[in-house]
């Protein structure tokens, strides 16, 4: 039986009957491609031999022996076998990401098969154990953002030496889009809330994460993702966001707006200062300070004559009290501001008396 063992052929045979006399030497004759090679003489007790063969060649063998009666018949030729060895070292290996999540692609050279066809290639990542390399040369199940090197070896019945370590490669996947949401805050403010893609950089270095409001220029997104704008009515704000990675470059975008602050409210009506009589304090039999006594009876309406003022500019005023068009009392050096009631010191009046007040000061004269 002939068995190839890594560049050698193991030949074995069965000793024949000696027919009454001890066997002498065996003569083993190799045939390479059908052509006889140098015969090998072996001692009578040996029934196997390891023959150093040339890889990639077909070999068969015959064996004979002898005793004192003479040589035996030569055996029939063995089954032809091809000598082979393990494949040579894979000359080179390289690695690159595919751009699909968790995958890299292997490229490698093909070594000599040393006599038997290579039936598979195996790979080892980062110096670890060997696994069969898929025919697609794509290795999956890796971690995005992690660096890997690869070694490759070729196998027939045996596996040859592995290549040197390849270049380092980092698997990555596509990135998603950022998101941005705009909302009005109060009457005069706008808030944008920016969120990075759920994928993150996904195995590649982040190049930038930026925003641009109303084309004022790109700025880095703050850590909390919040951008505030607005300080007045009738403002509008739009925002663009970009998220970019390197190696290879990829950029995704988002936008929002316009978001508007409240319309400007109409101006308040102009302030018009005014004065008028205010008879809010009845005078029941009260001395008027001038020798008279006011008593409310019949048509005579006895009351203090006060002045109600509204929205007066602050200042010092001269107040004049008129009854039926006649000036009856003047109050000087009176400090007034805003709205209120000035309490006069006169009481009198029939029900048909017409009371008028005038306030003069702060650059104006107001009557009513």
Automatic annotation (TrEMBL):
<keyword id="KW-0326">Glycosidase</keyword>
<dbReference type="InterPro" id="IPR013783">
    <property type="entry name" value="Ig-like_fold"/>
</dbReference>
<dbReference type="GO" id="GO:0016798">
    <property type="term" value="F:hydrolase activity, acting on glycosyl bonds"/>
</dbReference>
<protein>
    <recommendedName>
        <fullName>Fibronectin type-III domain-containing protein</fullName>
    </recommendedName>
</protein>
<feature type="compositionally biased region" description="Polar residues">
    <location>
        <begin position="62"/>
        <end position="83"/>
    </location>
</feature>
<feature type="region of interest" description="Disordered">
    <location>
        <begin position="62"/>
        <end position="102"/>
    </location>
</feature>
<dbReference type="GO" id="GO:0000272">
    <property type="term" value="P:polysaccharide catabolic process"/>
</dbReference>
<dbReference type="InterPro" id="IPR003961">
    <property type="entry name" value="FN3_dom"/>
</dbReference>
<keyword id="KW-0378">Hydrolase</keyword>
<keyword id="KW-0624">Polysaccharide degradation</keyword>
<feature type="region of interest" description="Disordered">
    <location>
        <begin position="246"/>
        <end position="273"/>
    </location>
</feature>
<dbReference type="InterPro" id="IPR036116">
    <property type="entry name" value="FN3_sf"/>
</dbReference>
<feature type="domain" description="Fibronectin type-III">
    <location>
        <begin position="1"/>
        <end position="87"/>
    </location>
</feature>
<feature type="compositionally biased region" description="Polar residues">
    <location>
        <begin position="89"/>
        <end position="102"/>
    </location>
</feature>
<keyword id="KW-0119">Carbohydrate metabolism</keyword>
């Amino acid at each position: 039986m002939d068995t190839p063992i890594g560049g050698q052929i193991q030949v074995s045979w069965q000793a024949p009957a000696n027919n009454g006399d001890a066997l002498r030497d065996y003569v083993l004759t190799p045939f390479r491609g059908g052509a006889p090679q140098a015969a090998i003489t072996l001692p009578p007790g040996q029934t196997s031999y390891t023959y150093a063969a040339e890889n990639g060649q077909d070999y068969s063998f015959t064996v004979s022996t002898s005793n004192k009666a003479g040589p035996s018949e030569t055996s029939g030729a063995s089954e032809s076998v091809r000598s082979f060895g393990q494949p040579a070292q894979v000359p080179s290996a390289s690695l690159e990401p595919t751009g699909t999540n968790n995958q890299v692609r292997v490229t490698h050279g093909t070594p000599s098969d040393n006599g038997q066809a290579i039936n598979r290639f195996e790979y080892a990542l980062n110096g670890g154990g060997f696994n069969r390399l898929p025919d697609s040369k794509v290795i999956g199940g890796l971690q995005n953002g992690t660096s890997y090197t690869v070694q490759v070896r070729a196998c027939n019945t045996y596996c040859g030496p592995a290549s040197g370590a390849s270049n380092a490669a980092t698997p990555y996947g596509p990135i998603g889009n950022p998101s941005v949401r705009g909302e009005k805050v109060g009457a005069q403010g706008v808030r944008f809330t920016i969120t990075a893609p759920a994928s993150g950089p996904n195995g590649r270095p982040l190049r930038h994460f930026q925003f641009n409001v109303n084309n004022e220029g790109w700025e880095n997104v703050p850590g909390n993702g919040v951008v505030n704008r607005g300080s007045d009515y009738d403002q509008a704000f739009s925002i663009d966001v970009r998220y970019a990675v390197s190696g290879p470059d990829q950029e995704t975008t988002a936008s929002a707006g316009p978001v508007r602050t409240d319309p400007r409210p109409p101006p308040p009506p102009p302030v018009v200062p005014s004065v008028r009589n205010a008879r809010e304090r009845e005078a029941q039999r009260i001395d008027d300070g001038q020798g008279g006594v006011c008593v409310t009876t019949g048509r005579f309406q006895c009351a203090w004559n006060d002045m109600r003022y509204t929205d007066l500019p602050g200042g010092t005023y001269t107040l004049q009290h008129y009854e039926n068009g006649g000036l009856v009392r003047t109050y000087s050096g009176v400090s007034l501001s805003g709205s209120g009631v000035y309490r006069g010191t006169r009481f009198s009046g029939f029900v048909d008396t017409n009371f008028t007040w005038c306030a003069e000061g702060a650059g104006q004269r107001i009557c009513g």
